[in-house]
Amino acid sequence: MSEPHTGRLTFGRRLRALRLDAGLAGKELAARLGWAASKVSRLEHGRQTATVDDVSAWVRVAGASAATRDELLVDLRSLRIDYATWRGQFRKGGFARLQRAQAPLEASAGTVRVFEPSIVPGLLQSSDYARHVFRGLARLPGRGRDIDEGVYARMQRQEVLYQPGRQFRFLVTEATLRWLLCPAGVLVEQLERLLVLSAVPTVELAIIPLDARLPHMIWNGFWIFDEAVVLVETVSSELSLRDADDVEIYTQFFESLWQAAHREEVAVAVLHRLIAQLRDG
Hints:
This protein has 281 residues and is α+β, with helices and mostly antiparallel strands. It has helices at residues 3-21, 26-33, 37-44, 52-62, 66-79, 86-91, 95-108, 127-138, 147-157, 184-197, 244-259, 264-280, and strands at 81-85, 111-116, 167-173, 203-208, 222-225, 229-233, 237-241, 262-263. The chain has 2 domains: 3-79, lambda repressor-like DNA-binding domains (434 Repressor (Amino-terminal Domain), Orthogonal Bundle); 83-280, Endonuclease Chain A (Endonuclease, Chain A, 2-Layer Sandwich). Strands 1-7-6-5-2-3-4-8 form an 8-stranded mixed β-sheet, sandwiched between helices. Helix 1 packs antiparallel against helix 5, helix 4 runs antiparallel to helix 5 (66-79) and helix 7 (95-108) packs parallel to helix 9 (147-157).
């Protein structure tokens, strides 16, 4: 049994205990809440994650205290954060598997917002740049070794950029476009690829210049898929945040930095300038 399902099951048992303490049958609780009886069953057996409104309504009908409600809501928030270590994910497969695992999420989202402060986003990487990124990651403990397969899978992921009706907003720092995670010639090719992709109708590219006046400090990179989920990568793990408040915070963070960035023609001019500097250097 997976850890998320185990957590939902434990939470569901606590909801069931409240219902039983109130002397309510499942169908009776459902009727009072205006729910289908099956929803009560799914929540109690951990087959569905409750929302804040679900818990608040359940506690109210069961006659439990406000303190009980608040305690449940704190625990509910933890259920809406999935934590997966890279070591654990790589035990199931290598770089290629992780690329294929993310593709459905990208394919199902209408709007994807990406902020990367230190690396070109995977959906925008050239094959040579990606190869150097994977080589660097492969040196870390517990990482994959299938570099060529991973690069191929990453290039396949990029097909989603050409699907009409989508919106991909990429926000990077100028430092990202200067740091040599690869040879200078490979970085030039990568920047040229960004020029090409910036003209794709579904793609918006913004660059935070080194001298930008920032609205706040910059923390880590993240990916936002619609208003449903945020993926946050750390050195050792990946977090999947589904709590509405978390998604809203990251969305506001993204938009505030977006306003501090160069966009459209100005971003293109930055790319041309950086390419010229690399060629002259």
